[in-house]
Amino acid sequence: MSDDTLRYGERQILEARLEAVPNPAPERDYRIDLTCPEFTCLCPRSGFPDFATIHIAYVPDRTIVELKSLKLYINRFRNEYLFHEAAINRILDDLVALLDPRWIEVVGDFNVRGNIHTVITARHSRPGYVPPPPPPPGTTR
Asked: How many Å apart are CA 88 and CA 110, to the nearest integer?
């Protein structure tokens, strides 16, 4: 498909770049929890699609992720051939490079395929930083 036949959403996804915006409360430790329930990538061995819910939790420093840019960035994975582990670690690395957060965790909860349910968790924190406790059981992630 050439650029002139792309629909506007396809063009936005193709051109997507993660963006940071100023943190409105950089003096405070607070946790941001984001859920992306429609993640898709392709298995590099079979080409079959893999589906997951991506959970991102982080304690920002000077910047936070702009949500529309995150949505478009996540959608860019839909045509990429990646193992689950590579996808989650790349998302973590890209967010760390963009935001330099105090602490961040990215969890990929992949749908069952071949009778196996896979959950990948990758974390990063600044040296010496004590991460916040997880949310109480029964609350939204």
From this structure: 11
> Which residue in the block uniquely carries the two structure tokens 């409360």?
25
Q: What does the pLDDT look like over 67-125, one tens digit per residue?
A: 999 999 999 999 999 999 999 999 999 999 999 999 999 999 999 988 999 999 999 99
Phi-psi region of 46 (alpha: psi -120 to 50; beta: other; left: phi over 0): alpha
d(CA 23, CA 81): 34
- Report the catalytic residues: 43, 50
Q: Can you read off the two tokens belonging to residue 101?
A: 């957060």
Q: Closest Cα partner for 120 from 83, 67, 76, 71?
A: 83
Structural domains in the chain, CATH included, are 3-125 (3.30.1130.10)
Q: 95 and 32 in contact (C-beta within 8 Å)?
A: no
> What global pTM score does this model have?
0.90
Q: Which two structure tokens, joined as six digits, stand for 121?
A: 């968790």
